[in-house]
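Re: zinc ion structure - here you go.
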Amino acid sequence: MTAEPCSTPGKVRYATPITARRSADRDTAIHGTRHTPYPCECGWWHTTTSERDRKIRVARDGTVYARKKRKAKPPGSDGDHEAT
Ligand SMILES: [Zn+2]
């Protein structure tokens, strides 16, 4: 196994998605901000509150789901544009 250097060495490291999930849930409850576990390039798991890191989702039993890319919406269906 060739783990990359950790880009966030100051973060707590978790060996499994289950422990990371538990910590994330606890921090979410304590801080009121959503914490999400994610696998780091260093081979460990960390938790984050950052939106951009949420490419994966971890269930409470530790099952890891990769977030699927959304299909591009057809123009005019996103509802972001105000109708004037
Ligand atoms: Zn790391």
